[in-house]
Amino acid sequence: MKDLIPGKALVFQSGGPTRVINYSLYGVVDELMGYAEGPSHVLQGIYGSLHGVRGILDENFTDLLNSDLGLVKDTPGSALGTTRHELTEKIDGQIQRKEEDIDRAINVLREHNIRYIFTIGGGDSAETAQVLSQAGEERDYKLWIVHVPKTVDNDLILTDHCPGYPSIATFDINYVLGTYFDARSNGNTIDINDVMGRNAGWVAASAAKCRARGYNPLIITPENPMDINEFVELVVERYREEGLLQVVVSEGARNGKGEWGEQLANDIIKSFNEGTDVDSMFQMRRDAIGRAVLSDMSLAKLLAPRLKKATGARIVANSLGYGQRSFNGVFSDIDDTEAEMVGREAVRLVFEMGEAGKMISIVRRSTKPYEVSYEPVELSDVAKPGEKLVKLVPREFFDTENQPNADFVEWVEPLLGDIDDTGFLELRPVRKILS
User: Fold this and answer.
1) What percent of the chain has pLDDT over 90?
2) Are 361 and 382 in contact (CB under 8 A)?
3) Position 102 confidence tier, pLDDT thresholds 50, 70, 90
4) Which residue among 52, 101, 133, 321 is least enclosed by CB atoms within 10 Å?
5) What is the mean pLDDT of the chain?
6) One fold for both 7-163+329-382 and 168-325+394-415?
7) Per mean pLDDT, which range of 156-170, 177-191, 250-264, 361-375 is the poorest?
8) b (16+ CB within 10 A) / e for 56-77
9) Residue 20, Cβ neighbours under 10 Å: how many?
10) Residues 6+ apart with CB under 8 A from 190
């Protein structure tokens, strides 16, 4: 494009790693290679920022020109490293920009003549991209920034789904199928699994796919707040009816007072020592805006004592933890493809269309057969500093009992990878001879 300025490209990854985030890295870098080798000489180099925006602030870059990412793309985790560092902070309840960090970032970009930035991440990363874009304009330094979506929670708005979600959904379905049949082997068991999803229940909802295997898990999501005691009563009712129950609960399950996990942890602390701090006892970290890092606690294990007391059942509490988002052996081929394509489309948007300040959105054109397109949306509509924008599971994907319904299952099925068939042994009782 004639309006582009000669300079270098920079790519970084931030937020939670995923099974496919390096496919997006590969897509960006491999597509950039074509423009670096072209006759225009607009693209003068390709850098990777190590540990996200932190790498810009620390001037910690790696040269990606002619890098071989063939094996890297199929490797879980963030190859460039990740960060939770943000360019905003909460002061006296108000979100404010970190102007010193922003000044430093623009100065570093200017000194290296970095003009093209591709950010790979979720909502917070999109906010970082938006802040950098605004800062470049304010400081008279032209930047072309495009955001490449990634989040296993699938809560990024203005896209049908996010790369990372299909693979974690595939893993979690396989995992809970395994724990269900394990629990069924013993009988008289409540199998409770906490899965990722702080603000939205897309990951937990994927367990609705298990109904096709002949059983009906109880699924708890943040979209449907429930008092903890009400939850326990529901579990008691279901367990007494069925004698075996599987529960899949989002880590961000909540009631009117907030998230269950933090409330339960605080209740345990009170029973020990009034002066004990919940953060230190549970080795619980806080994020940049003061929220408990839910992955530092196991909601399933916090709920287990209450369920044991209420039912007397054998309780198996599983926390799927970080492994679910970066597990190497269970994934979705669709996820691999789409993660790479959003990276490629981000580069094409800049170097073929001359556009910036966008995010690449996955637009579903058809479910049967499954077809998508990749379209740019305004970055300013996706990320608004100080305003948390979250895509919830829509009401039409729940039934009257707040369980994910058949419409949700139809929506998620095309995204999933392999889920092995399962079956139940047909029991044919033999007549007893001895009483």
Assistant:
1) 82
2) no
3) very high
4) 321
5) 92
6) yes
7) 250-264
8) bbeeebeebbebebeebbeebb
9) 30
10) 183, 235, 239, 244, 245, 246, 247, 307, 311, 313, 314, 315, 316
Q: What pLDDT shows up at residue 94? A: 81
Domain residues of the chain, as ranges?
7-163+329-382, 168-325+394-415
3-state secondary structure of 349: helix
**pLDDT tens-digit readout, 157-188:** 999 999 999 999 999 999 999 999 999 999 99
- At the fourth CATH level, which superfamily is domain 168-325+394-415? Phosphofructokinase domain (3.40.50.460)
Instruction: Give the bridge partners for 149, in sequence order.
Output: 121
Catalytic residues: 153
Q: With contact defined as beta carbons under 8 Å apart, do 119 and 14 qualify?
A: yes
CB-based contact 415:205 (threshold 8 Å): no
Question: Which tokens hold the place of 199?
Answer: 């603000």
Predicted pLDDT at 246: 98
How many C-beta neighbours within 10 Å does residue 182 have?
13
Helices and strands counted in the chain (H then E): 14, 15
Cα Rg, the chain, nearest whole Å: 24
Architecture of domain 7-163+329-382: 3-Layer(aba) Sandwich (3.40)
Determine the Cα–Cα distance for residues 247 and 189; give it in Å rounded to an integer: 11
> Residue 267 has what pLDDT?
78
Does residue 305 have a cis peptide bond before it, meaning omega lies within 30 degrees of 0?
A: no
Contact 26, 75 (CB under 8 A): no
Of 371, 404, 424, 387, which is closest to residue 206 (Cα–Cα)?
404
Q: Backbone dihedral region of 45: left (phi > 0), alpha (psi from -120 to 50 degrees) or beta?
A: left
Contact 223, 176 (CB under 8 A): no
DSSP track, 126-152: HHHHHHHHHHHHHTT---EEEEEE--T
Q: What is the pTM of this model?
A: 0.92
